[in-house]
Amino acid sequence: MSASRQAQADLVPAHATVLIARVARVVRQRFEQVLAPLGLRQRHVVALSYLRGYGPTAQQKLADRLRMDASSMVCLLNELEENDLVVRQRDRADRRRAIVELSPQGEFALCRVDKAVQIVEDEMMTRLSHQERATLHELLVKLNSGDPDWGLIVNE
User: Fold this and answer.
1) For residue 101, what are the contacts with CB-CB under 8 A and spacing of at least 6?
2) Is 67 exposed, middle or buried (0-12, 13-18, 19+ CB in 10 A)?
3) Residue 55: left (phi > 0), alpha (psi -120 to 50), or beta?
4) pLDDT tens for residues 121-154?
5) Which of 8, 111, 136, 151 makes a 20 to 30 Å CA pair with 73?
6) Residue range 146-155, pLDDT digits in tens
7) Residue 87: how many CA atoms within 13 Å on its side-chain side?
8) Could you tell me the domains of the chain?
9) Minimal CA–CA distance to 49: which of 113, 97, 124?
10) pTM for the full model?
11) Model confidence at 10, in pLDDT bands (50, 70, 90)?
């Protein structure tokens, strides 16, 4: 083994957790870069993605699922509503409750996000073969089994 390859090998952490954290940091930074031109941040995308997956949701339930306090949720929803990405309406069964729903513009924004995510994924996995990408995806799915903790995602 050449001296430069040995030096590189010495810099690779022995623990997979440290490697995952390093890669996650790079992916997150790149993700934020591709979101910026869309006028979105990760917390916006998490809220919109939740609504896309679960449909119209009571504002308090959304706050609970994303582990956000009420005032932070209001600020987040105000930003999304100002950009016509969500719609808030009073619950007909209980006028005290607000129901939050993804708007058509919010759905369109998520389609743009999906394309941006694909760009980041392609950049990050450029050195992997198609089979290696598939294997990595299978392993990550296995590690991520269960109901996602949306609060951990939005509060990173």
Assistant:
1) 51, 55, 56, 57, 86, 87, 88, 89
2) middle
3) left
4) 999 999 999 999 999 999 988 887 766 665 555 5
5) 111
6) 666 655 555 4
7) 11
8) 11-154 (1.10.10.10)
9) 113
10) 0.76
11) low
